[in-house]
Amino acid sequence: MTHDRTDRPSPQTVALDCLHAGIDAARPRHVVRRTLSRDGTTLTVADETFDLDDFSRVVVLGGGNAAGEMAASLEAVLGERLTDGIVVTDSPAETTRIDVRPGDHPLPSERNRDATGDILAAARDADAETLVLAPISGGGSALLSSPAEGISLDSFRTVTDGLLRSGADIHDINTVRRALSSVKDGGLARAAAPARVVGLVVSDVIGDDPSVVASGPTYPSRATPADAKRVLEENLDSVPADIETALRERESTPTGNDDPDAFAHVTNRVIADNWTALDAAADRARDLGYSPLVLSSRVGGEAAEVGRTHAAIGVECAATGNPLDPPAVLLSGGETTVTVDGDGTGGPNQEFSLAATRELDRPGIVVASIDTDGLDGSTDAAGAIADHETIPPEARDDARAALRNHDVYPFLAAHDALVETGETGTNVNDLRAVVVSRDRRTK
Predict the structure, then answer these.
(1) How many domains does the chain have?
(2) pLDDT tens digits along 239-297
(3) Of 218, 242, 272, which residue sits at a domain end?
(4) I need a labelling partner for 346 at 20 to 30 A (CA). Which of 21, 132, 269, 386 fits?
């Protein structure tokens, strides 16, 4: 259904509808059913088929924000052909054959470590007649977490927290996580060898590199312990002694990533990514009578600066019709960061939206940004939505102070600008919409 100009919904409604459409398209129950199907003993995964009679066991092992919903969907597809499984997630789902273990995010915890230990033990029980389906998604770097031998959980948490606060690039952060873990960097696949392993990846990283999503449990990278040491030196003032020792030892000990036998029977498939959400959001914009344009799926950098840039593009669109004539929805994805230097509460998507208000000088433009997992930063909000009226003139100084102190959550809550979705059961990175409803010829 399309809308005439006279009955188009408000730009706020359009923005939220587009964001929710993106989330819904990336939900595991939809993604798994688009990718996997079973006809009797034949299991089809994308363009690959498996005769389930060739395997004595079919198990599900994995972790991440989407792993619970993926496990439930895999149960529905496999039915009685599924033997058992274990996944760890912060978004539980009801299952009967798969043990869905609760975990914590964004920092690894004791229950994450214990669940991951059980997952690795189950992987080691696999043999050449076992088919392992491994649901892997964003959030798995924390949830699917097992520090390497000699590294304490406290040290692992300290380094993870320090890197997240430093504003380091996610690829660099995961380079360190891979070097310090027994499950990442292909560790899950190595534990399961010689089983047939199929990684089912819901990507939350720019470029969809499977070695970066959840730090690559089923996919080895070319990163080395020396690379991890460089990242730590560039971003942290100090490193726990046990981590320094472990990195020195791992520099002289091969991980097995170069062993062709370790990954000879491993396939990885990205079954959903940021484009899954962007395409659905664009379709929803068209349905609502707006012209969509995807600016990029690879937007990174400091959230506040990116927010101001997106708002400026929206203002340009309203004023000149560039890059396209209104009514329009400008979309982007990727992952911005916040370099935290205090104890404020908020997240990148909230800072994006609040900073955008500094550029919004006219009605008819709405900026909204969310993390598709429903949890922006360490808050219970997915992100925020704003227009030129969100921040009244008398509150502008307070808005700037909130951005400086990285304490935007309470400010946005007070101005009814938070977007709350609850945990979504998926994670395909950030999703942003700039809605421009005003025709430039009527300004």
Answers:
(1) 2
(2) 999 999 999 988 877 655 556 678 999 999 999 999 999 999 999 999 999 999 999 99
(3) 272
(4) 21
Tell me, yes or no, whether 338 lies in a domain. yes
Residues 294 and 427 in one domain: yes
Distance CA(417)–CA(422), nearest Å, equals: 15
What tokens were used for 232?
Answer: 């730590």
Domain match, 221 and 306 both: no
Q: Is 199 exposed, middle or buried (0-12, 13-18, 19+ CB in 10 A)?
A: buried
Q: Is the pTM of this model over 0.85?
A: yes
In this prediction, what percent of the chain has a pLDDT beyond 90? 85
Parent domain of 50: 28-272
pLDDT band at 1 (very low <50, low <70, confident <90, very high): very low
pLDDT in tens, 332-364: 999 999 988 778 999 999 999 999 999 998 999
The DSSP string of 42-102 is: EEEETTEEEEGGG-SEEEEEEESTTHHHHHHHHHHHHGGG--EEEEEESS----SSEEEEE
Q: Are residues 225 and 319 in the same domain?
A: no
Helix (H) / strand (E) containing 330: strand 328-334
Helix (H) or strand (E) segment spanning residue 413: helix 408-414
